[in-house]
């Protein structure tokens, strides 16, 4: 067992882990932050997307030890005191989810995108969602929600 | 995940000591970690290279670029935009955004997946692979599908790229994996043109000598009129036949020439 220490959603955490522990398992089983979803476990679906030092990464495809000393952000850190943030509100408002399984990853990917590119085009949004798979929505309302979350006019995007 | 030990040293020297010639180096893990989960590889010990600061970053060196082996694709995409735009464009098309934030150039080059993008850039640029023990020219480094000149316990610490006068990488992405069904990197230097093809051959990345000869005398798409890629030895699978890949090789080479800058 090895001790790993990192900051998760602004709080310093330290745990004993087996060195082979994936970051996704550390968050879910170690910290009980089960909003980080395991969809495929083969690095393709993006449901486990979290932020490590501000960058979107797949938590199922790095080890907890590799986040030693890092600032980790999960979906639980997006809302504050039960109040949804702008991105989450936009997903709700524009029906950017159905079953909701992919949504934590979608929101975390969106947050990383908007930090680098505050007003992405529809094409840029669709390209940026390459690694996040949704099997319900057909992506249309997710794209719409991201346009809205970035303060852009969504009336030009036809209804799904 | 099966049981194994993972170490994360902070220097190249410590990583070499930790490897001991037997353990498996772990780059960004975007290929290796899924491989471990599927138990297609089961090393008893892994040594993560992600904590080695001296292996990260991009610097100018002798008129070219030196990219640290642990530099992720996203950092190459943003860090070479002005100095080597064709390389930046290649890095920006690998996988998806989250993969680009973890996957590294050293890992990609060491794995030498027959459909990976970086081997084409390294071979077409005439890059030098810098390891913990030596320097190897790209022409000598890539030895076949998933095979390189690397020896056990040897780590890619960096890749040195000469910057061509003009270059372009054209990738026909396999839509599910985002790997290249075929990818062609064309680089024009004062001494001649180099053309490297990935995704097509069962032997991995290769230089297309006929196209290089034609383009070295006339760097224009029409110089390739009548020049065809040989389909023998090319990959044939459910994504595309060998003949299709040979056709794509020629099409993408023309596109790369017309878009080189």
SSE arrangement:
The complex is a heterodimer of chains A (160) and B (261).
Chain A: E1 2-8, E2 11-17, H1 23-30, E3 49-52, E4 55-58, E5 71-73, H2 86-93, H3 103-116, H4 122-128, H5 140-149
Parallel strand pairs in A: 1-5
Antiparallel strand pairs in A: 1-2, 3-4, 3-5
Chain B: E1 5-7, H1 12-19, E2 24-26, H2 32-37, E3 45-48, E4 58-61, E5 64-68, H3 73-79, H4 85-92, H5 97-100, H6 105-111, H7 118-125, E6 128-131, E7 135-137, H8 138-141, E8 142-144, E9 147-148, E10 156-162, E11 166-173, E12 180-189, E13 192-198, E14 206-207, H9 209-217, H10 242-259
Helix pairs in contact in B: 3-4
User: Would you identify the regions of chain B where 5 or more consecutive residues have pLDDT less than 50?
Assistant: none
Helices and strands of chain B: which structural class? alpha+beta
Rg from Cα of chain A: 16 Å
Which shape of chain A, going by the Cα principal axes? elongated
Query: Helicity of chain A, in percent?
Result: 25-40%
SSE succession of chain B: EHEHEEEHHHHHEEHEEEEEEEHH
Cα(first) to Cα(last) distance of chain A is 51 Å
Mean pLDDT of chain A: 96
Please give a structural write-up.
The complex is a heterodimer of chains A (160) and B (261). By secondary structure, chain A is α+β, with helices and mostly antiparallel strands. Chain A folds into 2 domains: 2-77, Beta-grasp domain (Ubiquitin-like (UB roll), Roll), CATH 3.10.20; 86-149, [2Fe-2S]-binding domain (DNA polymerase, domain 1). Chain A contains 5 helices and 5 strands; from the N terminus they run ββαβββαααα. Chain A has helices at 23-30, 86-93, 103-116, 122-128, 140-149, and strands at 2-8, 11-17, 49-52, 55-58, 71-73. A 5-stranded mixed beta sheet of chain A has the order 2-1-5-3-4, sandwiched between helices. Chain B is an alpha+beta fold and 261 residues long. Among the domains of chain B are: 1-49, Uridine Diphospho-n-acetylenolpyruvylglucosamine Reductase, domain 2 (2-Layer Sandwich), CATH 3.30.43.10; 166-259, 2-Layer Sandwich (Enolase-like, domain 1). Helices cover 30% and strands 25% of the residues of chain B. Chain B has 10 helices and 14 strands. Chain B has helices at 12-19, 32-37, 73-79, 85-92, 97-100, 105-111, 118-125, 138-141, 209-217, 242-259, and strands at 5-7, 24-26, 45-48, 58-61, 64-68, 128-131, 135-137, 142-144, 147-148, 156-162, 166-173, 180-189, 192-198, 206-207. A 5-stranded antiparallel beta sheet of chain B has the order 4-5-10-6-7. In chain B, strands 11-12-13-14 form a 4-stranded antiparallel beta sheet, sandwiched between helices. In chain B, a hairpin with a 6-residue loop joins strand 11 and strand 12 (180-189). In chain B, helix 3 runs antiparallel to helix 4. Chain B is globular, with a radius of gyration of 18 Å. Chain B starts with a strand and ends with a helix. The relative contact order of chain B is 0.13. The chains are: A alpha+beta (160), B alpha+beta (261).
